[in-house]
């Protein structure tokens, strides 16, 4: 009964893999959420806010404490300066910020460039807006993934209203280098398009990789919506506190759509995130080191099995190529794994459609789990060798 424009997005292999993981008691490295809590002071701040009676609707744009804290945090980390009253909007996770941006700023006759593989909400959101999605793609370049700039140029046209950018990138684990972002920015300026930049992993970059926000490139602050979220920054994906910053004119469009999607949510959680952004920079820095160690642990496990890996520069994810194990169809392998060895992972399939054939052999493993959980996954994966 689902409307035609959403039918292609009705079910994904994510839910199938999750069901199988539950049925077989698998260690679930398919889902991208951490299994430890955020800073204790943040949890206490949420409890305190509830006890002190902050339990009713917050202002439509978000509680002022959070809007002020997040612009200060953004300035400290990127140098961008936004007005907490007109250039910031608190949303129900990054997901609602993305949906609000597309629904509030893209007309049905417009086109949106989407770089595959991409977070699964992008395609569905463009479909909800009734707009046309124009695919571009990432490519494997040596031991990592980069933007295929030519494919993005081909995806732009005079009808392009927006490009959805995501760096650090889920699912490949790539951190787009400044040169790639400059190419995207040049296309945005040439075609007078906006960048909707999903930066939820902005603090999770490893080794000497540095996150650059496309909003900081020349001519881009006036045409970029920068989206982030407390979920990945502070280990609270279930709180769904996200935000978007950008020029007032663009924020007004997002706000208009958001007003009728959720209106508002999470007053005490917004206050707690405000506290964490002001007091827990050290914790956020430590998380990055911790996640890098987790990455290295899972790299060790998968490399030991003979799986080929792309270098993960950021995010929660490793891209694995299991063809050395004789696997060619990642989707059917991922459906077998929970029963066969008691581990779950997801294929690239739900992140792509136009270019799905190019990535049908790739699998995404999440490493945002406790070391003992990764170690148990490692023991179970030994079953593949026998
Ligand atoms: C997790 C994730 C999101 C969703 O963020 P929420 O704040 O939970 O809505 C958006 N984009 C990417 C790339 C993600 O990995």
From TrEMBL:
Cellular component, GO annotation = cytoplasm
- Which keywords appear in this protein's UniProt record, sorted alphabetically? Aminotransferase, Pyridoxal phosphate, Transferase
Ranges for domain Aminotransferase class I/classII large? 27-368
- Check the record and name the InterPro entries matching this protein: Aminotransferase_I/II_large (IPR004839), Kynurenine-oxoglutarate_AT (IPR051326), PyrdxlP-dep_Trfase (IPR015424), PyrdxlP-dep_Trfase_major (IPR015421), PyrdxlP-dep_Trfase_small (IPR015422)
User: What's the protein name?
Assistant: Aminotransferase
Task: Name the cofactor(s) required for activity, per the record.
Answer: pyridoxal 5'-phosphate
Similarity comment: Belongs to the class-I pyridoxal-phosphate-dependent aminotransferase family.
Gene3D superfamilies with a match to the protein in the record: Aspartate Aminotransferase, domain 1, Type I PLP-dependent aspartate aminotransferase-like (Major domain)
A single GO molecular function term of this UniProt record: pyridoxal phosphate binding
């Amino acid at each position: 009964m689902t409307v035609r424009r959403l039918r292609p997005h009705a079910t994904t292999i994510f839910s199938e893999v999750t069901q199988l993981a539950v049925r077989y008691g698998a260690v679930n490295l398919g889902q991208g959420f951490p299994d430890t809590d955020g800073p204790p002071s943040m949890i206490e701040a949420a409890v305190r806010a509830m006890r002190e009676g902050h339990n009713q609707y917050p202002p439509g744009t978000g509680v002022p404490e959070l809007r002020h804290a997040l612009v200060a945090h953004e300035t400290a980390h990127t140098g961008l300066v936004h007005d907490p009253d007109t250039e910031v909007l608190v949303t129900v996770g990054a997901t609602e910020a993305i949906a609000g941006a597309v629904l509030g700023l893209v007309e049905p006759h417009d086109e949106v460039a989407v770089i595959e593989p991409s977070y699964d909400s992008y395609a569905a959101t463009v479909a909800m807006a009734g707009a046309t999605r124009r695919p571009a793609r990432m490519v494997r370049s040596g031991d990592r993934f980069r933007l295929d700039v030519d494919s993005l140029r081909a995806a732009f046209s005079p009808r392009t209203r927006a490009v959805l950018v995501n760096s650090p990138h889920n699912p490949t684990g790539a951190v787009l280098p400044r040169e790639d972002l400059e190419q995207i920015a040049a296309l945005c300026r040439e075609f007078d398009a906006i960048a909707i930049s999903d930066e939820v992993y902005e603090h999770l970059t490893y080794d000497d990789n540095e996150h650059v926000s496309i909003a900081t490139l020349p001519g881009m602050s006036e045409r970029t919506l920068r989206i982030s979220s407390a979920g990945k920054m502070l280990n609270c994906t279930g709180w769904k506190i996200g935000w978007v910053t950008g020029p007032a004119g663009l924020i007004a469009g997002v706000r208009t759509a958001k007003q009728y999607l959720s209106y508002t949510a999470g007053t005490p959680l917004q206050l707690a995130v405000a506290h964490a952004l002001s007091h827990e920079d050290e914790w956020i820095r430590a998380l990055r080191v911790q996640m890098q160690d987790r990455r290295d642990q899972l790299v060790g496990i998968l490399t030991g099995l003979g799986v080929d890996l792309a270098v993960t520069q950021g995010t929660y994810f490793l891209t694995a190529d299991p063809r050395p194990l004789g696997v060619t169809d990642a989707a059917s392998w991922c459906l077998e794994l929970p029963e066969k060895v008691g581990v779950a992972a997801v294929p690239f399939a739900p992140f792509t459609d136009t270019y799905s054939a190019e990535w049908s052999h790739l699998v995404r493993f999440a490493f945002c789990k406790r070391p003992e959980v990764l170690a148990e996954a490692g023991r179970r994966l030994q079953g593949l060798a026998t």
